[in-house]
Write a structure and sequence with these properties.
The chain is built from 5 helices and no strands. It is mainly alpha-helical and about 180 residues long. The protein has one domain. Helix 1 (about 1-30) packs antiparallel against helix 4, helix 3 packs antiparallel against helix 4 (about 105-130) and helix 3 (about 75-100) crosses helix 5 (about 135-155).
């Protein structure tokens, strides 16, 4: 029953990714603004920085999950790539959607959106893991997609584009705060 095992892993992943991502929200502050952790942890309150909170824990969880499921599911890295890509998309759509309606954000809704986005990503991943084999070309594309996302999440904290997605909502700065 590969699908049941995959479903259990994906559901457990929601909790693991949510909790690890929540811890990463404050890790930059906890480490005294240690610059190398900016690859993984949010360095400001921009929407972009919050995307990393699902991505990196999701990648680490996927590595563990791979050890357990690699022989029993199809499309593992395709599922992980599209699942991890759908998490920031869900965060962006839900966050910008509700703040456009309300005119401001609420921390409780932001946390709920993060949890929901992780759940959506894990559901997308599960659906792809349970689907028919996508083929070698798609699998290779997924690995490249994961590498591109990892590079973007690692680099854009240090050298962010000057776009609203990357702007700290409190300080209106971009990337790692200048005083750090």
């Amino acid at each position: 029953m590969a699908n049941k095992a995959a479903l259990r892993w994906e559901l457990a992943g929601v909790a693991v990714i949510f909790l690890a991502g929540s811890a990463l929200h404050s890790a930059f502050d906890w480490t005294g603004h240690w610059r190398p952790i900016a690859w993984f942890a949010a360095v400001n309150e921009s929407v972009w920085e919050h995307f990393k909170l699902a991505f990196w824990p999701g990648v680490l969880y996927a590595m563990l999950e791979y050890l357990a499921l690699r022989r029993s599911v199809n499309n593992f890295w395709v599922g992980k790539c599209l699942g991890l890509f759908s998490m920031p998309v869900a965060v962006a759509v839900l966050f910008y959607g509700y703040t456009a309606v309300l005119g401001h954000h609420h921390v409780a809704l932001d946390i709920l959106i993060f949890l929901l986005a992780v759940g959506i990503g894990q559901w997308v991943s599960y659906r792809i893991l349970a689907a028919a084999d996508t083929g070698t070309t798609v699998r290779r594309g997924a690995v490249i997609g994961l590498a591109v996302m990892a590079a973007a999440f690692a680099l854009f904290s240090y050298w962010p584009p000057r776009a609203s997605l990357f702007e700290d909502s409190r300080t209106h700065q971009y990337g790692i705060p200048a005083e750090h």
